[in-house]
Design goal:
The complex is a heterodimer. Chain A is an all-alpha fold. Chain A contains 20 helices and two strands. By secondary structure, chain B is mainly alpha-helical.
Chain lengths: ~475, ~475
Amino acid sequence: MNLAALLPAEILAGTALAVLLADLFLPHRDKAYLGLLSAAGLAAALGGTARQLAAGLHASLWGGIFLLDPFALFFQTIVLGAALLVLGVSLPYLERWGRDDGEFYALLLMAVLGAMMMVASRNFLEIYVAMELLSVSSYALAGFLRPDPRSGEAALKYYLQGVLASAALLYGISLLYGLSGSLDLSVVGARSAGSLGVVALVLVAGGFALKIAAVPFHMWAPDTYQGAPAPVAAFLSTASKAAAFAVLARVLLTAFPAAQGPWQELFAVVAAASMALGNLAALGQRNVRRMLAYSSIAQGGYVLIALAVATPTAVAASLFYLAVYVFMNVGAFSVLSFLAGPTGGEELADLDGLAERRPALALALAVFLISLAGMPLTAGLMGKLYLFYAAVQGGYAWLALWGVVFTVVSYFYYFRVLRHLFWGTAPPRPAAPAASVPAGLALGAATLATVLFGVFPQPLLQLALHSLGMLR
Amino acid sequence: MGWLLLAAVGLPLAGAPVSALLGRRPAAPRWPALVTSLGSLALSVAAALTFRGGQPGMQLVSRLNWIPALGIRLHLGVDGISLPLLLMTAFLAATTVLASWGVRRRSGEYFFWLQLLSVGMLGVFTALDLFVFFFFFELALIPMYFLIGLWGGPRKDYAAMKFLLYTGLGSIVMFLAFLVLRFYGGTFDLLTLEHTRFPVPVQLAVFAALFLAWAVKTPVVPLHTWLPDAHVEAPTPASMLLAGVLLKMGTYGLLRISLGIFPALFHAFAPVLAVLAVVNILYGALLAMAQTDLKGLVAYASISSMGYILLGAAAGTGLALEGAVLQMVAHGLVAALLFLAAGDIHELAGTRAIPALGGLLTRAPTLAWLSLLGALCYLGLPGLAVFAAEFPIFLGSFAAFPTYTVLAAAGIVLTAGYLLWTAQRILFGPGREAALLPALGGMRLLPLALLAASLVAVGVYPTVWYHLIGPAVHLLAWGGGAR
């Protein structure tokens, strides 16, 4: 029973090992098959998880160490979906950089496995181990473009700050263990009242906030997103962020309902600061990838409204937002991954006139940016609608006001990119490499989903609402 | 018959991607745009014919569930206030397609955005669900950003971004106000919210936020600075729609939503609104007088004209409100005509600078006469559309605000002054422009002639419009009692 419920994770682990093994024996020209094998593994895991989600699975495994409830399954689906899109655009990207080795796929699968286990854990030790699996794989992925010093810098920055966050998390967990004598989420909270409990909670939250890139734990994000391989940046800014958010939500809402007042205020401040800093800092960026990094900090701020408000509507809204955010953000980073060569090519000026050189790419990027800005006919608007409505409903109208004001600020930098895309004039430059089939599929799917969920959001919202069973 | 409105709004949405896909052949994308705009116009006319005049209340209502989780329905309908605006919008949308007939540069994208803009404009005037209203309101932003940015004048980057940020701020504040209304009223449905009582602090906050949104869009001085930039830099058809339709979204929202949901607060606010209206009228007129750019002149004149609508709304008598709604239609038509004329003159003479122009009447007589007709209409010549609208406004406002009405009437004198002066300088006298005038083909004059004909049609027989508008605004009227 336990093992059967974890079948998707097992498929993923098996695929990762198979890719590693096969990598040893395959000649270099055949490495592309490893990517396809990974994609098959991811797709199978995604299919299995989606089926479990559709069936409303609610299984407690091994005495409550893991809990596969709709909440966990929803986030597993998000993570797997994001990884599949990322894999699609990674194939041509790595080939172009001459780094299409098996390790990349194995590392990506490991990271996904970590994220999957993380969101299903009900035990602090398990959470920590799963998060380390995600983190260590991510460090390696961020530095994967070995010849490029910026990639190394990205990995090092992420690693140094990540280790600090891990230490804080571990320290917080040890305090909680000392207070409660348990690592079980359902027990810890009730027994950790008092000021030491609050300190522990802040340490734990800080550990996760780094992955979300929330202010003040955002410092690594711009450098890492800019230097890491573009598909990896897409993964870090979506799947990894979503997984950390899920764990944070679970810890706060199920383990520490008693401490609700203080941490709600704390997250209101963190959310407000993330929106402000992310949006304002993005204004000045000439490098589009770096701009997207700051935008991603701001987007994290919008999602964190849910933890400040902490009502079921708000959490459902954050689920919806994170799900559609995967499509638009992976999409935006992916388009950039096609443009960048070893010499850069991600400055605003490099996008000049892209609409005439590569209409499909420009159109896709426009859809993603318009969605990130929260404009009609895209999923981004629907996400903001739910989030801001939940804030008003939960008595945080000021946070919604803060959010809409900075939304207008964000129009400036998102639409500035559109200006370069559609009416910038550039000297003729070598055409961007043609998109391959998997990358085209991934981009097409992301574009379609962004528009589709912007026009018909109801099914996804319904799913998000249904996935909250365990939280109240 | 609710499908009529849905079809009228949805048709351009279907045509937009078709135009975009035909972009490889520069002359092709205009055809889907023509078909969908004429289709929308035909459907709007059909809606008007089905509409039973002389009755207040919404007709041709359709309700489709859209996002049940938040109770959002695609709730469309028209009454005597929105139907005239719907007709005007559909007519202008078709006229602008004709006015864009010669667009060849990136025409696929151009007609894509033009049709998407039509969806937003038509949707705003038919939406009866606040979220749907916001959706269409905001939807009109993106196409205009691209139309200004891609086909605009020399300062297009600045103008497009300024337009986006200003009106984006207005609409997103409106969005937040709607969320608050949804929370306290339990629904986004406009007709239900009209009968909901809200706590006083909520009323005040929401009313203020909504007024900010309308004030940016209308625009109310001092929030007007985006308008001259956007109108001057936009390509001619976009200027026509900006002045003709987009500004009316602000005043329409003011009447439909602010007055509809918060009548008592609106009544209390009316004196302030009347002052703002007079400031708009006089400030706009004085600045229009100082313009040397023909488009800039029409832009500032529009600010002035929107003031009359605000005055009528503030006065609140049945007559003044009737005039205000008809003024939205009349100004929409005449502003579109004048922007089109300015664009044509620019194209012929190679300049829009008033001091550099002259003698148009002898060199391009048809264009000159039609422009003159527009100018005469604009300054309120009896028998033309604007007179039919402004006269009831003055008549109805005098009872409520005699002083302000007299001051506003001074605006008419200023308007007559700068328009006649300008007409004299550019139409008569010797030609001064450097470039020789090529002939303007019949196809080019068609939209201009259609607009001129509409001005005459509305102005000669306005009774049909009063009959349409009257019952609906009398529901909202409060000032002065009788009509």
